[in-house]
Task: structure prediction
Amino acid sequence: MEDDNKNLISLEYNKIVNLLEKYCKTYIGRKKLFNMKPSFSFEEVQKLLNLTTEAINMRIAFGNIPLSEIAEIEPYFKIIKSEINLSCKALLEIAQVLKLSSELKKYFNSNISNNSNSFILLEDIFSSLYVNDYIVMEITNKIIDENTIADNASPTLLNLRKKRRILEQRLKDKLQDLVHSKSKFMMDSIITIRDGRYVVPVKEEYRSQIKGFVHDTSSSGSTLYIEPTSVFELNNQINHIKMEEELEIERILQILSSSLYPYIKELNQNLSIIGELDLIFAKAHYGIENDGIEPNLTQEKQISLYRAKHPFIDKNKVVPVDISLGKDYTCLLITGPNTGGKTVALKTLGLLLLMAYSGIPVPCHEKSSICVFSHIFADIGDDQSIQESLSTFSAH
Result:
């Protein structure tokens, strides 16, 4: 494993991975990208390349896939299993994953129609997405944002909030009358809230003129926030209703949270599929932008790369190279002057094979063909940087 990683680093495979990161839309896609390793199985490489080609064709034919960043919802699964209520934020984030899954499936189904034979591999992936529009609707209809449950989330909640608003209006009317009739005792003609109870700001020197309970004092001490005795009972009723509201909200969250319990496996699967699609279409996007192609795979131990370009050299400046191995000869010795491009040629061959083995389109002529080796070994033995244009000689 250590030798394999050394070979990958020598050929700068890690830089290709870093380059692809900007094409990924989701955290799960980036996670799959950074765990990606080249395959050395002919069948697997063929599948990876075919998937990317299908994604390129789909992107060209039907536009961008509707992918966007999603929240990391995996920690919520343990909470659901523990029968603890999820927060509004957590429920909305899970609903967003389900909504995205539905949009992805609709994108595919609405576009393939008579073209299903052209996207056989992608169809298997898209069709595996779990869709539950009912749960999405339940969550998004009942939760407005991460801090707010909708009034109509339940008949009980709607009724409680109506009662509270009526009582609050009666209380405000009473306090407004008091503020106007006792205006000279007031620091300001506003009604505010302290300790969850409605109060009025009274000048400290007139404390004895307003009967009630002092809930707070301004920093200067010149203003007292007093709850007049005339609204004490209304405040009690309002707070009692608020407690009932909280209990009803907890009940609503409990119902929504428990409704997700049977689908934890499907949600996990959707995350994996979204990440897989993200990575496939990231490779496709990269391939389109960098003139990459799917090389022909051959069972013969032969390589024929035509006009191959190293992906880290400016495509307007790079000098393409033709490399052939296995047909007329199985060993190739490259000679030439310092800074002549010998190492670049070797790294181009090695890196393009690793890219192809990962399903990444390679920058060369479409007639190029490669085989799938069981291993790729690279003993470059220098600190050469292709991007910095340092040769083996100049690096030493």
